[in-house]
């Protein structure tokens, strides 16, 4: 079937949408591109900073083979989008931390002769329950197959670095069938994580800090209770009691062999445990709801 988008008349091309703020939209997926690799990296970081300011968990996906976002965001060049598209590895098992709270990254992956962009929708569905926003960074010459895979998704498209009427931007918008809006990068002067520190610093209010203190106090109390129970409890059945004055002999170390897939799975399980711990902290900090008083009885 021929690609009808390539045959659009100039008046029917999507080009650019009305300017708006990314944080004011309700789209979960945000696609960003630009005239250069640096502009795309700044755009992805700018979008992430806007969402992080709202205390949202953000995932940046490197969808361009030349962007190398891992080098800019202190990540590792290993498995990523390419391997997830083929279904070989789970998305959460390959997500990397950036060092910035609530900001995660999925690298592009190892070089491949063919990219299975048809699996992009499945990749996004797999990541969706775990992140409040996702930023998909693309090269300006991204293939039309990406637009086909994103058909039907509620998303926002952004062009970083100005030149919104440039030929490359218009061609990309028409090729992917995605409306693009100019993205202001004034608040992100460089494509480095350090640029987020000044932007996000001091955004927490005194109330938030107070809530964190309450959470920490309750966690400390739970820890003290657990230690007291361990000290007062006697040895269990089958336990070995060391006589007074005798030195306990530690058991020999256990050597385990582990291949790469098992190690990635363990990394994923540890990451999920950390997320569950964060959610527990948030649940403890959330004030209890008090039911409104009912009507007075006669």
From TrEMBL:
SUPFAM superfamilies: P-loop containing nucleoside triphosphate hydrolases
Record's keyword terms, sorted: Kinase, Transferase
GO molecular function: kinase activity
Descriptive protein name: CpsD/CapB family tyrosine-protein kinase
